[in-house]
């Protein structure tokens, strides 16, 4: 019985070609992409069974964090508004 | 990111550079203190010179921003012991990095990509197993950390994985499998990066790296219960 179906096309998806023999850079790139897209996090979560109460706790924490981050970013953007003459002309 | 900038004072480390006579850029009191300590014009040594003269150090915004970003704490990407690179730097050469519809027929040392040997690396928490296979799936070689002489806990280390990679590469070349190889990694473990590094150190020509970690976002069969330590 086939329990796992490879949904990603072999050697097309989740693949990085090595450039100029720079294997380390390719490894870091694929790790970074996998991490950014949430594969590694999902892998770690599914190693052991996460009980429903733990799932609810985690999701609620993530939601609260997202709300806080959104409001804090808005506050910072608001506080950093300015409408004044350039104090250090030529600095760029 | 900016939130951290406001909370963490060491973000201004790049501003504390004080050249003789310039203290304007570092904020407030710090500027005056550094100025008075080092400046010839308004410091303790000055007695005759009354009028303070300050010049700003010629700086560029890009340089300062780079310094500031370098001094920020590194964000955890999720893989232990791995460093990250800025993907945006590679945006100019994206067509060369990721495979497209022509890649299976693209030649590497005269062999089309779809017919290259495959090097499967299974990186688990406790061990790393590397196997060299045909493009059809026929097994050619197999090496693991235990075969290298590491036992028990020491198998689940990056050093063991690197040694295994080197060993397999050298044995493969000795047996005649000198062709370029495409690597397929599975799992997250200490040997994930080190095994590939070992392969290339041993002399294997690694052409591409694929990740085939078995991950499901859909509900799966119930996994075993959490370990209580």
Automatic annotation (TrEMBL), chain A:
Matching entries from InterPro entries are given as: Ribosomal_bS21
The protein's name in its UniProt record:
28S ribosomal protein S21, mitochondrial
Return one GO MF term.
Answer: structural constituent of ribosome
Name the lineage.
Answer: Eukaryota, Metazoa, Ecdysozoa, Arthropoda, Hexapoda
Identify the domain of life: Eukaryota
An example GO BP is: translation
GO CC terms of this entry:
ribonucleoprotein complex; ribosome
The protein's organism comes out as Cloeon dipterum
Family statement drawn from the similarity comment of this UniProt entry = Belongs to the bacterial ribosomal protein bS21 family.
Keywords assigned by UniProt, alphabetized: Ribonucleoprotein, Ribosomal protein
PANTHER family this protein is in?
MITOCHONDRIAL 28S RIBOSOMAL PROTEIN S21 (PTHR21109), SMALL RIBOSOMAL SUBUNIT PROTEIN BS21M (PTHR21109:SF0)
């Amino acid at each position: 019985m086939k329990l796992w179906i490879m949904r990603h096309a072999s050697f097309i998806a989740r693949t990085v070609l090595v450039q100029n023999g720079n294997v380390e850079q390719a490894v870091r790139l694929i790790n970074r992409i996998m991490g950014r897209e949430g594969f590694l996090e999902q892998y770690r979560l599914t190693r052991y069974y996460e009980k429903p109460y733990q799932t609810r706790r985690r999701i609620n924490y993530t939601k609260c964090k997202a709300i806080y981050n959104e409001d804090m970013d808005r506050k910072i953007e608001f506080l950093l508004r300015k409408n004044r003459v350039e104090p250090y002309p030529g600095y760029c | 990111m900016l939130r951290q900038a406001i909370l963490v004072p060491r973000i201004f480390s790049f501003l504390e550079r004080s050249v003789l006579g310039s203290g304007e850029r570092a904020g407030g009191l710090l500027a005056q203190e550094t100025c008075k300590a080092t400046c010839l014009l308004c410091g303790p040594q000055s007695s005759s010179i009354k009028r303070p003269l300050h010049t700003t150090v010629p700086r560029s915004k890009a340089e300062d921003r780079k310094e500031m970003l370098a001094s920020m704490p590194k964000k955890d990407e999720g893989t232990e012991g791995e460093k990250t690179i800025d993907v945006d730097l590679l945006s100019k050469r994206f067509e060369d990095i990721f495979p497209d519809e022509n890649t299976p027929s693209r030649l590497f040392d005269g062999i089309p990509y779809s017919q290259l040997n495959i090097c499967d690396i299974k990186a688990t928490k406790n061990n790393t197993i590397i196997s060299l296979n045909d493009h059809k799936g026929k097994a050619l070689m197999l090496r693991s950390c235990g075969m290298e002489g590491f036992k028990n806990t020491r198998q689940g280390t990056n050093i063991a994985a690197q040694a295994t990679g080197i060993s397999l590469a050298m044995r493969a070349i000795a047996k005649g499998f000198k062709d370029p190889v495409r690597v397929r990694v599975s799992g997250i473990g200490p040997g994930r990066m080190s095994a590939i590094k070992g392969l290339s150190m041993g002399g294997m020509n690694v052409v591409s790296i694929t990740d085939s970690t078995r991950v499901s976002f859909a509900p799966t069969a119930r996994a075993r219960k959490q370990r209580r330590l």
